[in-house]
Amino acid sequence: DDEKDLKPRPPIVTVMGHVDHGKTSLLDAIRNTNITDGEAGGITQHIGASEIVINDKIITFLDTPGHEAFTSMRSRGAQVTDIAILVVAADDGIMPQTIEAINHARAAEVPIIVAINKIDKQNANVDRVKQELAEQGLLTEDWGGSTISVEVSALKRIGIDELLEMVLLVAELEELKANPNRLAVGTIIEARLDKGRGPVATVLIAKGTLNKGDFVLTGTSYGKIRAMVNSKGRRITTATPSTPVEITGLSEVPEAGEILYSVEDEKMAKDLAEKRRQKIKDESNKGTARVSLEDLFS
Ligand code: GTP
Ligand code: NA
Ligand code: MG
């Protein structure tokens, strides 16, 4: 894309951290909802996407599961993100999945904002958390470093405004842009088979605009977009960069992490999906690595 085609786009912020440190609760506090109450055992099983408007500015948030079985999903989360919020429970400190999250954010070269959560708890120890962060190379600003940290309580809704201010500040410095006027490219962040609607996938738009009726291809799945629903559950007909959108109309359930492409027509979508399916078959016969969809376009 030419520089002149690039337009500002909302930041994509991924909330990461150890299991039960309060990632979903923090998003609940930001959204004023209670997703955690509805979760089986309070454990996040998928990457939830939501859009929040603050002072007329949109922020796209991705929740991630903290359970260690979800390492690969978390690493994908880091790849689609612009900013990572690292949630650390003040009563628990840095734990194995906290370090994993730090490593993912570093590998993706995205800025980290630390949310020191659960400061309402009797046994909260903020200084200990800052000490442990320093040991990981994240020296907070008040300790003479450059890591932004905010002390919060998701439960008591303390520090939420300050955290959002920091997110907007960091986002502004990133000068995030994308070309909305082209065929859409996005990432599948979650997908499932719905009894009534068939394959349903949540796509995070990276560039271009996705329209209802577009022909798309993702992995070996393809189709014409039948309907699009935004993160608030409302039907929409177009989705611009940084927008998470649930789509229906795919031929099969794609894998999370796959890239989705809009293409000119249905034949192209079908042919490319078939070509990829064949290539994966050939490669797996040879025992070699997975095939990238980009290979087919080059
Ligand atoms: P996973 O998705 O399973 O990794 O957990 P999570 O990081 O999303 O944590 P979750 O929001 O499910 O919160 C875990 C537990 O901590 C719940 O019982 C919350 O009520 C509690 N909790 C979260 N934030 C706070 C807080 O600020 N203060 C207190 N006291 N409890 C909190
Ligand atoms: Na939890
Ligand atoms: Mg959660």
Automatic annotation (TrEMBL):
Domain of life where this protein originates: Bacteria
Functional summary from the UniProt entry: One of the essential components for the initiation of protein synthesis. Protects formylmethionyl-tRNA from spontaneous hydrolysis and promotes its binding to the 30S ribosomal subunits. Also involved in the hydrolysis of GTP during the formation of the 70S ribosomal complex.
Protein name: Translation initiation factor IF-2
Molecular functions (GO terms): GTP binding; GTPase activity; translation initiation factor activity
Annotated localization: Cytoplasm
Keywords: Cytoplasm, GTP-binding, Initiation factor, Nucleotide-binding, Protein biosynthesis
Residues of the full protein shown: 262 to 559 of 767
Gene: infB
Family: Belongs to the TRAFAC class translation factor GTPase superfamily. Classic translation factor GTPase family. IF-2 subfamily.
Domain Tr-type G span(s) in chain numbering: 8-177
Binding site for GTP: 17-24, 63-67, 117-120
GO cellular component assignments: cytosol
Region described as G-domain: 11-159
